[in-house]
Specification:
130 residues; cell membrane; two-stranded antiparallel ribbon; 52% helix; 6 helices; transmembrane helix; RDD family protein; RDD; UCP021697
Length: 130
């Protein structure tokens, strides 16, 4: 038996097509990334730190805000939050793993049909709209 293709990203995960609980789409994700990376860039520049510091600050922003606010500042500004696949709290280890893979870039740009990057698949998380 051949599995039927899904009609929209997140359908096989039980997520709605659009609105609250639907998969956070590319435009929102990229916007959130620009905000978070931009904040790290500004903080680093204020102190005169180098490019490595930008990545470390970006990582710290992710690791601190993902478990506490269910999303980074950029995610929250763009109306998204990070949850486990079952909808629960992401805990502490998932944001760390997800952030390390996000900083490596490649896992974040390889997606499945649900628009989840390898960093989200490895962490068992999904970025959804509020």
């Amino acid at each position: 038996m051949v599995a039927s293709a899904q009609d929209y990203p997140g359908e096989r995960l039980g997520r709605p097509r659009e609105g609250a609980g639907s998969i956070g789409r590319l435009g929102r994700r990229v916007g959130a990334l620009f905000i978070d990376y931009g904040a790290a860039y500004l903080i680093s520049g204020f102190f005169g730190w180098d490019a490595l510091a930008i990545l470390l600050i970006f990582g710290a922003i992710q690791i601190v805000f993902l478990p506490t606010l269910q999303g980074s500042p950029g995610h929250r500004i763009f109306g998204m939050r990070l949850v486990r696949l079952d909808g629960g709290w992401v805990g502490l280890w998932r944001p760390v793993l997800r952030t390390i893979l996000l900083i490596l870039v490649i896992p974040a740009v390889i997606w499945d049909a649900d628009q989840r990057g390898l960093h989200d698949k490895a962490a068992g998380t999904v970025l959804i709209r509020d």
